[in-house]
């Protein structure tokens, strides 16, 4: 093992992937489609989510191409509207929301708490099927002509004025919503009931805490979205007069309901990302996460605060000035727990023996971009500046920094981190480091110009724009091209590594989580015998002793 | 940051008392502007420098958002509800006017120019673009043609209240609620009279929902606002005087003085 790295691969000439593992246990398509194994379901999720990610990304590419010129040159305004709507719907509901929880979370949570599986395996499988049904409905919508409401489904535009497939899309999101409610429920029950002996709440890895908080949000917030969308569908079909002022409804009510879910949704998306970062930062700094309890509780605090800030999406919509004041203050407060996390991770790295494997590179990318995303959020949360900045490209840049720069980076970090555990093989290190850096550069090129565009006043969702904005848009599109390369690379080399990657062994990162103390890929039952947790989380000394014992006994 | 932002916010959304009021109606996909002098514009807004301008904004169909990035102002145009914002232009010139709330197919075409002129140029423009009738006169015509005056007149046996001086006055509703008759209330009183019956009157006023266009309602409101005597208002055809007759106290979002119920726009 060289000094610069924590990677400890077994001797490659004798290394073997264990014959018996969750992948080889049973064969045939049916054994996958009817499985109850959380690791197999996670794999199914991974494949389907990647599929939708690349659809969403192609739509993003179309958007950037169209915006190369000020006129509507590539497609008609209507088509453009459909493209950005589908991009939003797919990325938010079919990628970001389920990304980390349903794939990585599904895969590692039972192992982290030392259990054989999630508490409700059948429900877990059902979640995946719901997800697939939602996905098929979305694809059907696209094939049938698309929808152009924007992912926010603003009423009465969506209920009354558009003749596109609002109903199928609304129902698709409704179904996807249930998929995430079930996933959340499953996690909550598992974390409460399935912890192995010795695994107290404060010995849980921080991944589990964060995902727990996100699960609470999913279970409590998603039903509101579901109801809202059903109301939109009913209003469309029967004109029941809830949102449409023409039938005596209140259009602002929709905004309240929608953002009551969709703000917490932002945290549903970002909390699991933070979950990944805690694990990765600790492992590659070889230190316990600084201020474990603070980080754990900040996740819960975010989950609670998240429900009381929704109206910051409505500052310019004529809610009373005093309401704005309160929501602005609450919004600033919700930034505190996020800041706590960032500080604690930084302190974890401080004086740690840091190494820069790919997951760590992505994690550092996350911290940088998320911080920018968060700080720009302060300008939006502050009512006065929000008036100028909202509904412009500043918003677009802000949430892409948080969601793409934050969440997607975290997702990629996690995928690389647990890839050896998942497949038993290493990804190729050099090229993946290159991909991580490319992504980071491409990302900044794409979205940083958008902050400037926003400050200059370019409105979002414009198919055509005044010519003076062109230069920055060209910049952004060029950056998106680099970003595209950054995303294609992992797809290629990870697939390659399935067959040709080096054998990883049990614990290539020398990480402390229980999932690393079993074989890779794990057995269907995860552990040979139920593990007993006799040390704190992130106890690297314990790990060292453990290894010395092993050497001694050989 | 929070304090600064909030101060800014209150400032932008609290028009000064001497602001000159201009109505803006958003509709798929254009901005219609109604000046008190009766000038109509589409996708353009002419204003003089050095005067606070208050915009009273409403949408005729879906959500739109009225944004002038150069002046740092933006306000949602909401169907069925007045909102307002104000600014004071300092430099003559042409500035962008955008719709920033996604509103359907031609959202990105819902743009226009804000033309800021010196007061003299502005007077000239007002004179040249007058439609021959001020907004309040439009309203007066509607008031007669919709037979509002059948009930709202000054006769002692009138079935409806006298509307002179009603604007910005305190009304008590049958529900016991005290309410200030601001723009938003006048609009509501015309479209949903049964929702707030004024004390001492029978609920006989018919609803005009769906019968008057958004511009019609604006004209009526403007007319009622200007009714500060029992006689017809004194707005001249040629608005050489750029000071509108009304005091422009309309401030739907202004917090009401203590003790009064706040009226949300
Ligand atoms: Cu939000
Ligand atoms: Cu628009």
Q: Care to give the gist of this entry?
A:
By secondary structure, chain A is mainly alpha-helical.
CATH superfamily of chain A: Cytochrome c oxidase-like, subunit I domain
Proportion in helices of chain A: 55-70%
Number of strands of chain A: 0
CA-based gyration radius of chain B: 18 Å
Looking at CATH, which topology of chain A would you report?
A: Cytochrome C Oxidase, Chain A
End-to-end separation of chain A: 19 Å
Pair with the biggest interface: A-B, 52 and 51 residues
Q: Which term fits the overall shape of chain A?
A: globular
Helical proportion of chain B?
A: 10-25%
Helix count of chain A equals 16
Would you identify the CATH architecture of chain A?
Up-down Bundle
How is the main sheet of chain A built?
none
In total, how many domains does the architecture of chain B comprise?
A: 2
Instruction: Determine the CATH topology of the largest domain in chain B.
Output: Immunoglobulin-like
Question: How many helical stretches of chain B?
Answer: 5
CATH class of the largest domain in chain B: Mainly Beta
């Amino acid at each position: 093992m060289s000094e610069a790295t924590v990677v400890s691969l077994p001797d490659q000439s004798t290394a073997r992937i264990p014959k018996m593992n969750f992948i080889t246990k049973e064969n045939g398509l049916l054994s996958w489609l009817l499985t109850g194994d959380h690791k197999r379901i996670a794999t199914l999720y991974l494949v389907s989510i990647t599929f939708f990610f690349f659809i969403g990304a192609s739509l993003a590419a179309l958007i950037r191409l169209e915006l190369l010129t000020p006129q509507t040159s590539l497609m008609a305004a209507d088509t453009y509207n459909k493209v950005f709507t589908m991009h939003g719907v797919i990325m938010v509901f079919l990628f970001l929301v389920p990304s980390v929880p349903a794939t990585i979370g599904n895969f590692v949570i039972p192992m982290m708490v030392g259990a054989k599986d999630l508490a409700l395996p059948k429900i877990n499988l059902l979640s995946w099927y719901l997800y697939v049904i939602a996905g098929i409905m979305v694809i059907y919508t696209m094939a049938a002509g698309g929808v152009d409401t924007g992912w926010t489904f603003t009423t009465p535009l969506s209920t009354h004025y558009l003749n596109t497939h609002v109903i199928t899309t609304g129902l698709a999101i409704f179904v996807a919503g249930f998929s995430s409610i079930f996933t959340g429920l499953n996690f909550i029950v598992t974390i409460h009931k399935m912890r192995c002996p010795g695994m107290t709440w404060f010995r849980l890895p921080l991944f589990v805490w964060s995902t727990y908080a996100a699960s609470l949000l999913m279970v409590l917030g998603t039903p509101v979205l579901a109801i809202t969308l059903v109301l939109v569908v009913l209003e469309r079909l029967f004109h029941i007069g809830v949102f449409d002022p023409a039938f005596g409804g209140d259009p602002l009510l929709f905004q309240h309901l929608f953002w009551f879910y969709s703000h917490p949704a932002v945290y549903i998306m970002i909390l699991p990302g933070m979950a990944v970062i805690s694990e990765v930062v600790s492992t590659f700094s070889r230190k316990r996460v600084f201020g474990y309890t603070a980080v754990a509780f900040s996740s819960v605090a975010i989950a609670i605060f998240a429900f009381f800030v929704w109206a910051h999406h409505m500052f310019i919509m004529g809610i009373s000035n005093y309401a704005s004041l309160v929501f602005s203050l609450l919004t600033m407060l919700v930034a505190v727990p996020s800041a706590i996390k960032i500080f604690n991770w930084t302190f974890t790295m401080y004086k740690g023996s840091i190494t820069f494997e790919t997951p760590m590179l992505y994690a550092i990318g996350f911290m940088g971009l998320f911080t920018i995303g968060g700080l720009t959020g302060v300008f939006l949360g502050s009512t006065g500046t929000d008036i100028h900045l909202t509904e412009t490209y500043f918003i677009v840049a802000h949430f892409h920094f948080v969601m793409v720069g934050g969440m997607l980076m975290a997702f990629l970090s996690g995928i690389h981190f647990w890839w050896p555990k998942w497949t038993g093989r290493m990804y190729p290190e050099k090229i993946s480091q290159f991909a991580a850096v490319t992504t980071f550069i491409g990302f900044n090129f794409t979205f940083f110009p958008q902050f400037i565009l926003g400050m200059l006043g370019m409105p979002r969702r414009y198919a055509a724009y005044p010519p003076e904005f062109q230069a920055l848009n060209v910049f952004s599109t060029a950056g998106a091209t680099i970003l595209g390369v950054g995303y294609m690379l992992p797809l290629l080399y990870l697939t390659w590594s399935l067959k040709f990657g080096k054998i990883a062994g049990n614990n290539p990162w020398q990480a402390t989580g229980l999932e690393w103390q079993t074989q890779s890929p794990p057995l269907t039952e995860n552990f040979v015998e139920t593990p007993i947790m006799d040390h704190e989380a992130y106890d690297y000394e314990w790990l060292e002793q453990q290894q010395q014992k092993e050497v001694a006994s050989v | 940051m929070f304090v600064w932002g909030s101060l800014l916010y209150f400032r932008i959304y609290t028009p000064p008392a001497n602001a000159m009021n201009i109505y803006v109606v958003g509709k798929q996909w254009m901005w219609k502007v109604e000046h008190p002098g009766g000038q109509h514009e589409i996708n353009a807004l002419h204003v003089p420098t050095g005067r606070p301008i208050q915009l009273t904004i409403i949408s005729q169909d879906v959500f739109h958002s009225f944004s002038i990035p150069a002046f740092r102002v933006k306000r949602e145009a909401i169907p069925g509800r007045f909102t307002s914002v104000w600014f004071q232009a300092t430099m003559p010139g042409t500035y962008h006017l955008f719709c920033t709330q996604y509103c359907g197919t031609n959202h990105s075409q819902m743009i226009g120019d804000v033309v800021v002129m010196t007061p003299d140029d502005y007077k000239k423009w007002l004179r040249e673009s007058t439609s021959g009738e001020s907004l309040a006169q439009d309203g007066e015509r509607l008031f007669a043609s919709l037979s509002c005056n059948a009930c709202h007149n000054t006769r002692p046996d009138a079935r409806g209240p006298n509307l002179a001086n009603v604007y910005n006055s305190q009304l008590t509703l049958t529900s016991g609620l005290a309410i200030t008759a601001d723009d938003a209330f006048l609009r509501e009183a015309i479209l949903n009279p049964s929702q707030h019956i004024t004390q001492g009157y029978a609920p006989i006023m018919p609803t005009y929902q769906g019968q008057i266009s958004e511009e019609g309602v604006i004209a009526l409101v403007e007319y009622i606002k200007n009714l500060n005597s029992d006689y017809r208002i004194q707005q001249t055809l040629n608005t050489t005087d750029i000071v509108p007759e009304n005091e422009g106290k309309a401030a739907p979002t202004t917090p009401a003085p203590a003790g009064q119920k706040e009226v949300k726009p």
